[in-house]
Specification:
Elements (H helix, E strand, L loop, with lengths): L1 E6 L4 E6 L4 H18 L8 E4 L4 H12 L3 E4 L9
Parallel strand pairs: 3-4
Antiparallel strand pairs: 1-2
Length: 83
């Protein structure tokens, strides 16, 4: 799931993305990267929140943002999913 919200007056946007697992993230990137690269010519990511524990391939790609302090990661403590 990907939802994008925008505040036109403040020229800010938030993209909320929820994936079932790391493979779904990687698949999204495979398809969306050309479009994301074009959009990023006009945007700056100021905060990126990672919830859970994605696999090493996902985390390797997120590492530059984590190291730069623009991304944070919070590991799962508790919860459930209704089917």
């Amino acid at each position: 799931m990907v939802q994008t919200f925008i505040d036109e007056e403040q020229l800010t946007a938030i993209s909320y993305q929820l994936y079932r697992d790391s493979e779904a993230i990687l698949e999204h990137w495979r398809h969306a990267d050309p479009y994301i690269a074009e959009v990023m010519r006009y945007c700056t990511v100021v905060a990126f929140e990672i919830y859970g524990e994605p696999n090493p391939a996902v985390m390797e790609r997120m590492n530059p943002m984590l190291q730069a302090g623009r991304a944070t990661q919070m590991v799962r403590l508790a919860g459930f999913v209704r089917q």
